[in-house]
Amino acid sequence: MKNMKSLASALLTPAAMLVAFSVQSTLASEGVPPLATLPPPPIPADNPMTPEKVELGKQLFWDGRLSGNGTMGCVVCHQPELGWGTGTPISFGYPGTEHWRNSQTILNSAYYNKLFWEGNVTSLEAQAPPAAGGAVAGNGDGSMMEMKIRFVPEYVEAFREVFGTDWPHVSQAWQAIAAFQRTIVTDPEKVPFDRFLAGDEDALSDAAKRGMALYNGKAGCIACHSGALASDERYYNLGVPAAPEFSSDPLYQITLRWELYQKGVPEEVYLAGSDDLGLYHKTKRPADKGKFRTPSLRELRWTEPYMHNGVFATLAEVVDFYDAGGGEGNTVLTPIGLTDEEKSDLLAFLEALSMDEPLLMEEPELPETATWAEFPK
Ligand code: HEC
Ligand code: HEC
Q1: Tens of pLDDT, residues 21-64
Q2: What pLDDT was estimated at residue 31?
Q3: Whether residue 11 has its Cβ less than 6 Å from ligand 2
Q4: Does residue 9 surpass a pLDDT of 50?
Q5: Chain Cα centroid distance, residue 95
Q6: Measured from the CA of 74, which atom of ligand 1 is nearest?
Q7: Mutate which of 104, 279, 291 to test ligand 1's pocket (most atoms within 8 Å of Cβ)?
Q8: pLDDT tens, position by position, 104-125
Q9: Ligand 2 centre from 294 Cα, in Å?
Q10: What is the mean pLDDT of the chain?
């Protein structure tokens, strides 16, 4: 409570504080951190950022040589103009496969302590190898990808400059990509809600201000979507409906069964597999079935569709889902009873948590692969 007060008074003008404070005080006893402006992302001590490393990471993020067939670089499933995702409910997979989950935006992934929908990886550096190597994602072999980048003279030079080694190592490629991803973050000056927190009371419409009160009060969103990222990074089962693809398409069923098998679930669970079991895959605790990591609610305007399987195309559908008390099997939500006006107020507030414009980026130019004979010795 003390922290909250000092944080609030540091960020808000007196009038804004009154609004933010009165609505947030209802939950203060639960010790939930209020929404706040994002600080710059944390940088790990063993992977410092330099402009050269970020630039190299950007090229590698676009580079299909970091995949099995030369075309499935990170950007294919994390496209700037599609909110750094795929825009489809379930991401497409490596050619010949389908994926099983919605491609998360990489916007603000720099802030999470737990990555992926089941939060099973704890740093961007550790996240990139399974992304580039996973059979339904990049499907690249580590040593083959390393050889491919060693045959690019410009990369050899750039890696030497950035990492000080004679030859590129694939682990350094993941470090550079992680550094690049730490630049794909929200700019608070472009976000109405953050401008409001900084003292511009007109930055939020009246509807958005009422929506903020609902978010922090009656609608209870703050209980899980809290803090600067609007995520507590915990896991809940909201009863999000299963992806229709799992009952209609053998390629999706193959991926689902394969994931269950890979992750070592008991045979009876594997044989009955008809949906993504989320956190259970990691813990094998029956109570964790259907639990997924709370995602950030920043940049939602640019990152549809929503939920771990993209089953909701619009934010209005998401709000209706919560209003009805979640889906079948949900273990945390109860019906809210919002009026139509309250729903549109809440939507106005959710939209005010996004930048005024999407974060776009030009495709970088990629250096050529050379034959060994052409290499500077
Ligand atoms: C074939 C599509 C595909 C490719 C290629 C791909 N991704 Fe992903 N990415 C996804 C999907 C789908 C998820 C969600 C997977 C999950 O939660 O199990 C994801 C999740 C992520 C996340 C986690 C975000 C969060 O909020 O936790 C990051 C970061 C990420 N990808 C970065 C990368 C990088 C870096 C590469 C290249 C090395 C890459 N991806 C390649 C589809 C892809
Ligand atoms: C009990 C914790 C909890 C509460 C309360 C909660 N959420 Fe969520 N929210 C989650 C989790 C967990 C997910 C991911 C669920 C999944 O994909 O299966 C999620 C997903 C979302 C998404 C999708 C985001 C994306 O990028 O796909 C939106 C939008 C959202 N919530 C908005 C809200 C709103 C609005 C409220 C208040 C009405 C709310 N949430 C209340 C935990 C919660």
Answers
A1: 433 434 443 689 999 999 999 999 999 999 999 999 999 999 99
A2: 84
A3: no
A4: no
A5: 23
A6: 37
A7: 104
A8: 999 999 999 999 999 989 999 9
A9: 6
A10: 92
The protein residue whose alpha carbon is closest to atom 34 in ligand 2 is 221
CA nearest to 278, candidates 266, 268, 265: 265
At residue 156 the predicted structure's pLDDT band, cuts being 50, 70 and 90, is very high
Alpha-carbon distance values, 253 to 246, 286, 308 (Å): 5, 21, 16
If you measure from the C-alpha of residue 186 to the centroid of ligand 2, how many angstroms do you get, rounded to a whole number?
19
What number of other Cβ atoms are within 10 A of residue 241's Cβ? 14
Ligand 1 pocket check for 343: Cβ under 6 Å:
no
Token digits for 152? 């690019």
Q: One-letter amino acid identity for 157?
A: E
Q: Is residue 311 within 8 Å of residue 243, measured between CB atoms?
A: yes
Distance set, CA 202 to CA 83, 160, 191 (Å): 27, 50, 12
| Tokens at 316, concatenated | 């209005």
Residues 6+ away with beta carbon under 8 Å from 229: 38, 108, 111, 112, 296, 298
Q: How far is the CA of 45 from the centre of ligand 1 (A)?
A: 23
Instruction: Report how far residue 95's alpha carbon sits from residue 245's, in angstroms, rounded to the nearest whole number.
Output: 17
227 CA to centre of ligand 1 in angstroms: 24
pLDDT above 80 for 375: no
Tokens of 84: 């750094």
Mean pLDDT value of segment 148-159: 97
Q: What is the pLDDT of residue 26?
A: 40
Q: For position 376, what pLDDT does the model report?
A: 65
Closest residue by CA, ligand 1 atom 16: 116
**What is d(CA 221, CA 345) in angstroms, rounded to the nearest whole number?**
14
Q: Indicate whether residue 35 lines ligand 1 (CB < 6 A).
A: no
Q: Is the pLDDT of residue 184 over 70?
A: yes
